[in-house]
Amino acid sequence: MTVDQRPLRADARRNREALVAAAREVFGAKGVDAPLDEVARRAEVAIGTLYNRFPTRADLVEAAFLPTLREAAAVTEEALAFEDPWAGFVHFLERSVLMQVADRGFTEVCSRVFDPDSGIEKAKHANASRLNRIIERAQEAGQLRDDFRGADLAVVFAAATATPDWRRGLGMILDGLRAR
């Protein structure tokens, strides 16, 4: 067993948990480029402690957002479980937009490209096939425009989250995506 695999001491574990929680708050409000010293202050630890636990910003972003990416994957699974493909597609978009509106950091994590070997990119890649299946099901049922692609989701999310009344905006977007 290497040193990195040893369980953390209780105080080190608390510091790590405090840093991840603080990162979620700070990144959620200000984005993933927020100052790391603000994260350390919020966690009530020294900046050296932050860098000891998370040598890079990407390490901290990954620790903070992998649980949310797992939540997003669960949303895609829920959407695939809908008998009506359009209802599943709408469910996916509504829940996903809500998650992004509530968390600026998550929006940035979804829209940025990270190291291909990172847990974030692996989680996003794993979810991509489910997202494409949601789209394919709705298209095969004749409910979603045939020219809609998974890459178009970035435009949908950007447009829907650009206004405080995101439900109204998403409703208009969905009207435009419906097959005629």
Automatic annotation (TrEMBL):
<dbReference type="Pfam" id="PF21597">
    <property type="entry name" value="TetR_C_43"/>
</dbReference>
<keyword id="KW-0804">Transcription</keyword>
<dbReference type="Pfam" id="PF00440">
    <property type="entry name" value="TetR_N"/>
</dbReference>
<dbReference type="InterPro" id="IPR001647">
    <property type="entry name" value="HTH_TetR"/>
</dbReference>
<dbReference type="InterPro" id="IPR009057">
    <property type="entry name" value="Homeodomain-like_sf"/>
</dbReference>
<dbReference type="GO" id="GO:0003700">
    <property type="term" value="F:DNA-binding transcription factor activity"/>
</dbReference>
<feature type="DNA-binding region" description="H-T-H motif">
    <location>
        <begin position="35"/>
        <end position="54"/>
    </location>
</feature>
<dbReference type="InterPro" id="IPR050109">
    <property type="entry name" value="HTH-type_TetR-like_transc_reg"/>
</dbReference>
<keyword id="KW-0805">Transcription regulation</keyword>
<dbReference type="InterPro" id="IPR036271">
    <property type="entry name" value="Tet_transcr_reg_TetR-rel_C_sf"/>
</dbReference>
<keyword id="KW-0238">DNA-binding</keyword>
<dbReference type="GO" id="GO:0000976">
    <property type="term" value="F:transcription cis-regulatory region binding"/>
</dbReference>
<feature type="domain" description="HTH tetR-type">
    <location>
        <begin position="13"/>
        <end position="72"/>
    </location>
</feature>
<dbReference type="InterPro" id="IPR049445">
    <property type="entry name" value="TetR_SbtR-like_C"/>
</dbReference>
<protein>
    <submittedName>
        <fullName>TetR/AcrR family transcriptional regulator</fullName>
    </submittedName>
</protein>
